[in-house]
What does this fold into?
Amino acid sequence: MRRNEFALTMPSFLWLAVFFIIPSALIILISFRGSDSYGVLLPVWTVKAYQSLAGMHLMPVILRTVRLSLYTTVICLLLAVPAAYGMSRMSRRMQNILLLILVVPFWTNFLIRIYAWKVLLHPDGFIKHCLVWAGFLDQGATLLYTEGAVLLVLVYTYLPFALLPLYSAAGNFDFTLLDAGRDLGSSTLQLVTRVYLPGIRQGIINAVLVVFIPAMGSYIIPEIVGGPSSEMLGNKIARYVFVDRNIPRAGALSGFLILMILLPSLVSLVNRDSLAKGRKELVQT
Amino acid sequence: MKKKSVLPVLILAGIVIFFYLPLVVLVVNSFNASRVSSVWGGFSLKWYERLFSDQNLLRSVKNTVLVTGISVLCSTVLGSLAGISIARFKSRLQKVHSVFIALPLIMPDILIGISLLLFFISFRIRLSLLTIIIGHITFCVSYVASTVQARFQNFDFSLIEAAQDLGAGKGQILWKIYLPLLAPGILSGAMLAMTLSLDDFIISFFTAGPGASTLPIQIYSMIRHGSPPVINALSTLFIAFTFIVLLFYQRISRRLNNEN
It folds into this structure.
């Protein structure tokens, strides 16, 4: 019996131990190593990397990372909660069709989707022309390479991850409760805040986790549609690795990012499937 | 008495437009003879011609097929075994195991990429296609395992005991009981692994050796260094490919589900 368990467990257990657990521990270990100016690690233990982080003026980047992730989460919820509600009140057939329609764009390559926004927001692009034509923008205004562009693409990328858990929570919600509330004379606002939102609480928590956590670790979105003034933590880490070749400093900042992500995900470790579901539900529709 | 609310439906419609607008613009522009996306210069296939004469691109397609094929195969096997063992046994080992499986799901790609890069450098493993494949298997295993594990929700383990009592061997139990029951879960896990592997740029970028360029890496360098209309053509083909795969997948998965 036990031998059986061992044989089934060990392949994935060892694989993850070697290629995930050890590398993750290594990144923390290396952050306490010294390095010379060529990026070669020295066999000394030091906290220099952490001290140098303090002098890097990272505060604006940290605040921007948290701010953009929070805005993304809030906007995704504001759009996804009513949309998921609207969807779950449609006919079964319509629901399935819509689900497919909503999921399909996210089967296309991630980079291609970001690139599409770069084309749209380009100074010669579609959106700029529309906005200038409608009188909302000056000819000289830029849309691309701004924090707003990063936020827009973050929302675009993570909205489906918010939609799916909220939709499945709405599917389990008993809509007759709303009718009962209305019969008892509650207003629409009361129905939403006192009955519906508490009813889909778990869905909201899952949606927050699957949007906020990956948004915190964004790297490629600000890299492509953001400018130097919209860098996030991920860009800094990549810069330390590829440009500055300061591996200990990259390790130290990675450790910091892990901590910031771990805090909200303590909630998810209790309910560990919620994160896998974000992507998983894309497949199981 | 259902009260129809207009606002949610409007938002839903807005989201659908929001999701498709960028893709439609890409597809339309891939047939646009003009370099500038907002000017229609007439219908043309010249970007496609240019696409197919790009040797680097063709090589990266070959690399991608190799990386995705091997990673899907390995991670499906590893992940399925992991899903079975976590669902089947309730020991302390499985608790640790399931934490191992859960962690890559919350770790941002960039951290997985950097930690693997440091790992390979520290142990003097030369970066190549193989290191990309190792990275892909690592993050795919977790997704396959959770998908397979989910199939066990209503699974009756007395079936296994019955089979053992009737003298079935381990191999027989795996092939004749687990595999057919788990087939839809394994298929959707493999499908998920395939999309994640095809989609991954960040982890590949960090673990790629010189010349070991996959399609997303190639797309990234095209985005960075110009040639936009060619990317439009490439994206259109990519989108078409995705739709075809999705169609097939729906067919097969429906049949598997009906059999059960």
